[in-house]
Structure formats: C-alpha cells, structure tokens
Design a protein that fits this description.
Layout: E1 4-11, H1 14-17, H2 30-38, H3 43-51, E2 53-60, H4 71-91, E3 96-98, H5 107-121, E4 126-128, E5 132-134, E6 136-141, H6 149-158, E7 162-164, H7 189-203, H8 206-209, E8 215-217, H9 224-235, H10 248-255, E9 256-259, H11 266-276, E10 281-282, H12 292-301, H13 307-322
Bound molecules: 2,6-dihydroxybenzoic acid (GRE) and zinc ion (ZN).
Zinc ion binds at residues 8, 10, 165, 261, 286, 289.
Length: 327
C-alpha cells in the first residue's frame, strides 16, 4: 500500500543515543543502528519510499528525557531534541511532522515545552517514554497523580494526542525480573510498564476531568485489548480506590488509540480490531528498532482487514487524528 503514515518512528540526538545501546541488537548492529537513528535526511527517506510510507511523525528515542535525573538537564535535552526534529520537518515538510519530547520532571516545564512545540513549531502532539525519574535513580513518577493535572489541562487545551511509549522498569524496582534480564524490555516488560501506566490513567478520573484527551499506545495495545473484558469483569468485585465514574473499558475505548508498532502479528491484530475497532487503529513501524520493511510487508499483505479498512488504519485515520495536510 502506498501513502502510509507512520508515527512511532524514532530519532536520537547525541545526548539520548547511548541509553538505547542495549536495545540496538547484537554488538555488530550498533554502527548501523546509530547511523539509522541519527539520520533524518537520507536512508530513512529512501526506506520510506521503498516501503510506501509517505509520511512519518518523528519522536525521540526511549527512555530519552524521562531517564534524566536533573530537571534543568531534562528541560535542555528536550528542547534540543525538539529543535532537531523541527529542523528536519523544515527540511522535509512533505515527509515529516514531530512529537514533542517533554521534561516531565517538572509538569509546568513540560506544559511550556509542549505549548512551544505545538504553537511555534507545528508539532502534532507529544511522545513520552513512560514514567519519569527525577533527582535520584530510584524514582518513578506516573502521570495519574494530582501534580500532573495542570499538565493534562495544557494537553487538553492544545487538543493534541499524547503517545505513551514504553520504557524499562528501573533496576531497584525490577526484582521480579531477577535472573531474566531479557524479560525486562521489549519482549515483555515494556508492555507491562505501559499497560499499567495506561490503566492508572483510566482509573484516576483523568478522563472525567478532561474528556477530550487522546492517548496513543503502540505494540497493538501493550496487551490491554486482549484483557479488556476481564478487567471490567473482575472489577465488579473490587473497585477499591478506582476513581473513574465509568467502567474502565469505556475510558479505554473512548480515549485510547492503538498502533501496530513492532507487533506484526495477524492474530494480535485481529484481536485489536475486534476489541477496539478499525477507527481507533493506526499503522506504525517503530523504526529503527524494527525494520520498516517488516512492518510494511506484513501490513500490506495482511488479510485481517478489508482494503477499505486498511486504507483507514494505514493512512486516513492518522490524517484525521493529526490534521495532516495530505490528500
Ligand atoms: C521502542 O522504541 O519501541 C523500542 C526500544 C527498544 C527496544 C525495542 C523497541 O526503545 O521496540
Ligand atoms: Zn518505539
């Protein structure tokens, strides 16, 4: 399929490159990975052409700004990453837009940076890499807590989507992964982290306070669609400190969008389509952690949805959600 739009497509700046090293693949892959994640002008566009991806929304790599302990450094690094993406968008306005990296260590600074990116640079929303650390390594701040309501007010006012991207649990809180480091990252732990954070947002009353918020999660829903029925079913018996007015499933279906990033599986896709519907689903690759070729080959060939729905998920849903200037 030509004309696809993809938007979990990562770039790095020198300050955030190293923290991705462990995920780049086996040792021989680092040079190629570095070249690909830093490039926004050559190879990336060539592969987009080859795989029928017309347009990408760029984002900084994980954990990126969320892993920086010092708040001023986080603010400066977010600005630098955002300015680098804005420059790439200016060089290739018909191929790229961008999501803001945000210094969530300080909710007011995050609001200010998102406002700058959206209002002054035309960014399409934010991509935040899970919980933020702050001051000390053993810290993990999730955004359902009251301190972040003013930040969400800004997201709501700007009316842009917020992409909640995975990161790995920090070592001091990852005892249950002991002896199995492979389990902590993309094979499983990423989804555990991101699904818990998503469910916390649903259970916090956030979406009653700001009914227009749109959260995007990748990897075919970070396991949530598969379990959505059971969550509500079991919450008939215990809703202790659940702060939503509605059943959790309603918040999830009303406020979450799901992408295919890094999960090119027909059965998982079928489950998502059945649970959340084609209007809430979107094609993404997750380059350069995944190959655009793998994403596109799978998507272009899948028989799970009709050609009409494939066009929605691969293109027109994204044009609508992000108000993209594409036909
Ligand atoms: C991602 O960005 O989704 C990602 C990483 C590291 C490893 C795998 C992966 O940041 O999908
Ligand atoms: Zn990603």
């Amino acid at each position: 399929m030509k004309g696809k739009v993809a938007f979990e497509e990562h770039m790095a700046i020198s300050e955030t490159l190293e923290n991705t090293k462990a995920f780049a693949g086996d040792s021989g892959k680092w040079d190629e990975f570095t070249r690909q994640i830093l490039d926004m002008d050559d190879e990336r566009l060539e592969i987009m052409d080859k795989t029928g991806i017309e347009f990408s929304i760029l984002s900084n790599n994980a954990p990126g700004v969320q892993g920086i302990l010092d708040t001023d450094e986080a603010i400066n690094t977010a600005k630098k990453a955002n300015d680098a993406m804005a420059a790439a968008v200016q060089r290739h306005p018909d191929r790229y837009a961008a999501f803001a990296a945000l210094p969530m260590q300080d909710p007011d600074a995050a609001s200010a940076e998102l406002t700058r990116c959206v209002k002054e640079m035309g960014f399409k929303g934010a991509m935040v890499n899970g919980f933020t650390q702050k001051d000390v390594p053993d810290s993990a701040i999730y955004y359902d807590i009251p301190e972040y309501r003013s930040f969400w007010a800004t997201v709501s006012e700007l009316d842009v989507p917020f992409y909640l991207h995975p990161r790995m649990q920090i070592p001091s809180r990852a005892q249950n992964y002991e002896g199995h480091p492979w389990l902590k990252s993309a094979p499983w732990g990423f989804a555990v982290e991101t699904s818990i954070h998503s469910l916390r947002l649903c259970g916090s009353g956030l979406f009653d306070d700001y009914p227009n918020l749109e959260i995007v999660i990748g990897h075919l829903g970070e396991h949530i669609p598969y379990d959505l029925w059971r969550i509500d079913a079991r919450m008939r018996f215990s809703r202790r400190e659940y702060r939503g007015n509605k059943p959790l499933g309603e918040y999830f279906l009303d406020h979450f969008k799901i992408t295919t990033s890094g999960n090119f599986s027909d059965p998982a896709f079928r489950c998502c389509v059945e649970v959340v519907g084609v209007d809430r689903m979107f094609f993404c690759a997750d380059y350069p952690f995944e190959k655009m070729e793998d994403a596109a080959d799978w998507y272009d060939a899948t028989g799970v949805v009709s050609e009409e729905d494939k066009l929605k998920i691969g293109r027109t849903n994204a044009i609508k959600l992000f108000d993209l200037d594409l036909d």
